[in-house]
């Protein structure tokens, strides 16, 4: 683990505590919701953070900390779970979906010794991964049956160290990159961008201008 990854994990850990604190503070000021059945949901990167938040809330409940919430469960969609497991799942999946050939799959399996996470530095392995990434770049990674559209969310595309705050000139900002067109899944991100940045919307929602530190 690099120091950077370690730092990000440290930030995540701090985030858990902040989220739990925000949640319980909110319930303190909205006690009418305390007895409601509580399900906590998240997707993508929150697969790494949410279980810890839920565990923290469950522990608090067991220890009898107020407010006693009616925690029923949690759900994760398309979650990140573990860098190594997630990374190693990509190549077999691409092969299973017919995106890479049997030959390339067998070759990469052999050259990377079935571990695409730890062996990327080996030259034969990285050569195969380069070919795989080239093929991967032709499809929409999030929805492989949909057309490949420009990515329009001002956030990173992948789980990993490529945090927005760490990229001097992220290629993944919404503007002035090519924009997704109507019919692309990403089109709704574009609409959200205009909606959320519109001054009258901000005024109506009482959003205050502030300097923001982006975690990801
Ligand atoms: C960042 O991107 C802008 C617009 O494409 C470009 O003009 C600028 O030189 C880039 N800056 C760096 C540090 O790459
Ligand atoms: C913001 O929204 C209002 C109300 O829909 C609209 O009239 C205005 O043109 C929008 N502003 C910008 C800059 O798009």
Automatic annotation (TrEMBL):
- A molecular function (GO) term: acyltransferase activity, transferring groups other than amino-acyl groups
Q: Which domain of life is it from?
A: Eukaryota
Key word Nucleotide-binding present: no
Q: Name one Pfam family in it.
A: Peptidase_S10
Which portions of this protein are annotated as coiled-coil regions? none
Which GO terms fall under biological process for this protein? Answer: proteolysis; secondary metabolic process
User: Protease: is it a keyword of this entry?
Assistant: yes
Provide this UniProt record's keywords sorted from A to Z: Carboxypeptidase, Hydrolase, Protease, Signal
Specify the signal sequence span: 1-22
Under what name is this protein listed?
A: Serine carboxypeptidase-like protein 1
What organism does the UniProt record list as the source?
Cinnamomum micranthum f. kanehirae
């Amino acid at each position: 683990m690099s120091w950077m990854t370690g730092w990000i994990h440290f930030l995540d850990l701090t985030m858990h505590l902040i989220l739990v604190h925000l949640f319980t503070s909110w319930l303190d000021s909205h006690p009418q919701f305390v007895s409601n059945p509580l399900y906590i949901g998240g997707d993508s990167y929150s697969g790494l953070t949410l279980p810890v938040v839920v565990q923290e809330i469950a522990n608090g409940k067991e220890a009898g900390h107020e407010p006693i919430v009616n925690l029923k469960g949690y759900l994760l969609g398309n979650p990140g779970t573990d860098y190594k497991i997630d990374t190693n799942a990509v190549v077999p999946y691409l092969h299973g979906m017919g995106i890479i050939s049997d030959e390339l799959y067998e070759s990469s399996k052999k050259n990377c010794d079935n571990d695409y996470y730890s062996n990327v530095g080996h030259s034969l392995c990285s050569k195969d991964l380069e070919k795989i990434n080239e093929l991967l770049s032709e499809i929409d990674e999030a929805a492989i049956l949909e057309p490949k559209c420009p990515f329009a969310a001002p956030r990173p595309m992948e789980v990993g160290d490529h945090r927005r705050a760490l990229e001097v000139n992220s290629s993944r900002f919404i503007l002035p990159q090519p924009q997704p067109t109507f019919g692309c899944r990403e089109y709704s991100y574009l609409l959200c961008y205009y909606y959320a940045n519109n001054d009258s919307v901000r005024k109506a929602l009482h959003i205050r201008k502030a300097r923001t530190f982006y975690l990801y």
